[in-house]
Amino acid sequence: MISSDERLKNLIAKFVLKYNYWGYLFSRIRRNPVYNLPSIMAVSPQPDGTITLQYRPNLVDNTDDDNLTHVLKHEGMHLLNKHCSRLLRIIANDFGTFKLMGKMELWNIAADCCVNLQSNMPDSLIIGGKTWMLEFPKKYQLEDGLLSEAYYLELLKRKQEHEKSNKGKGNGRKSFGVSPMSTGEGGLDDHSSWSNIKGVADLSSLSRKIDSHLQDIIKESVKTFNKDRGRMPGYIESLIQGALLPPRVPYYQIIRKLVRGSKMSKFKRSFTRINRKRTYVFAFGEEENMPAISPFPGKTRDFTFNIVVMIDTSGSQGVDDIKEALSGIKNIIDTDRHTTTTVLEVDTQIHKEYRVKKVRDIDPKVMGRGGTELGLGLLRARQLSCDVCLAFTDGYTENINLIPRKYLPRKLIWVIGAKTGTAENINKTGFVVKVPGM
Fold first, then answer.
1. pLDDT single digits (tens) 237-293
2. Residue 376: what pLDDT?
3. CA 3/CA 60 separation, integer angstroms
4. What are phi and psi of 47, to 5 degrees?
5. Other CB atoms closer than 10 Å to residue 200's CB: what's the count?
6. pTM above the 0.85 mark?
7. Residue 119, exposed/middle/buried by CB under 10 A (0-12, 13-18, 19+)?
8. Domain coordinates of the chain in residue numbers?
9. From CA 333, how far away is CA 255, in angstroms rounded?
10. How confident is the model at residue 85, as a pLDDT?
């Protein structure tokens, strides 16, 4: 009898012979049998940043090729969407085990809703002789076509509202829009390994390694596929383009380069460093084992950044301009979780000011859409003593070049669209970044 691994290997080889993209993708991913896996398959991250395909042999043995093909497609869609690394960035700073498990469960539903809808999966599959129901947005009264994060945040909001209104009355999942799976086996695939990675202290760093590994795999698989045949379903092609697309602008790297000099002169108190001005206090008293005056704390260099992101929310700003600003915030907090990031939303006044530490802190509902006067926002950034202000605008504002330097942040980076923006009123006050395609 053929083994489970040989069967998967042969099925993937058939994909390649039929010019099916999933064969090209999974032929580059290691397979690993896990006999106690709660579901039939799972794409699992490893501590070194690579990905393996885990599978449960007895379920694979008792499932026909057509259903296995759907399962592999489902797992492949998770890879193209980078759902694993996106989850790691969400939970990077969560330490409570109970809350983490709840968030994991909601992300599992959100990610499955996304990939099943994208790939037009059937409502159910026959796995190991049993019917396994798949997750779709309509099951939770959610809108079709949204990002996984949008589904996750909506489910999280429902869960929090439910827990608040039913405090001390038990925890019923159905009542806030999260129903249990239809079988006792669990979902179609198992996502528990996405966050349960032993020996990894920095999840943000691991997420970047996984992204880099996936980009290499996807790039090589697409290169070979196009050389052999060159025909790919549209929904896969768009996801691949998104997976291989680098950020429009590496905002954090620009900030780090511009502010590096000032960071060398910035210090913070450190209880692990001796204060050199107090070296004379090392003389101990006759009856005491401690110095009369403590030589601590000393000082050490402070390499963290204090960043203000100012978003022009006037009526002249397009939707893409606002999205680019929100992406810029995400790029900063994904790259350096120790950075202090304050967001200002400004048109003719400051409508909103808030700090972000995690992706979920970003508020996509911007306020404003009136005229444009950014001077107040720049003055507020100065008052916040930021190392740098990253200002997203189209440049159609009052003449910032005429504002005295003492009312402006120490360092100022303007981000404008290369096609729609103008730097005429801002180019003498700071560094101007023109975003291609905007």
1. 766 766 665 556 777 777 777 765 444 455 556 555 555 655 545 555 555 555 555
2. 93
3. 10
4. -55, -25
5. 17
6. no
7. middle
8. 4-244, 269-300, 306-435
9. 13
10. 86
Q: Number of C-alpha atoms within 13 angstroms, CB side, residue 8?
A: 26
Q: Which one-letter amino acid corresponds to residue 292?
A: A
Select from 213, 246, 308, 84 the least CA-distant residue to 92.
84
Cβ 116 vs Cβ 151: under 8 Å: no
At 375 the pLDDT is 93
Q: Which DSSP string do the residues of 115-126 spell out, in sequence order?
A: HHHHTT--SEEE
Query: How high is the pLDDT of residue 314?
Result: 87
Distance CA 20, CA 13 (A): 10
d(CA 189, CA 82): 15
Cis peptide before 250 (omega within 30 of 0): no
- Name residue 54's beta-bridge partners: 32, 42
Question: Would you call 354 helix, strand, or coil by DSSP?
Answer: strand
> 417-421: which pairs have CB atoms within 8 A and are 24 or more residues apart?
417/320, 417/321, 420/318, 420/321, 420/394, 421/393, 421/394, 421/395
Q: Which tokens sit at 348?
A: 């003719």
Residue 278 C-beta-side C-alpha neighbours within 13 Å: 14
Indicate if the alpha-carbon torsion angle 214, 103, 342, 416 is positive or negative: positive
CATH architecture of 306-435: 3-Layer(aba) Sandwich (3.40)
**CA distances, 429 to each of 3, 74, 220, 400 (Å):** 68, 50, 44, 7
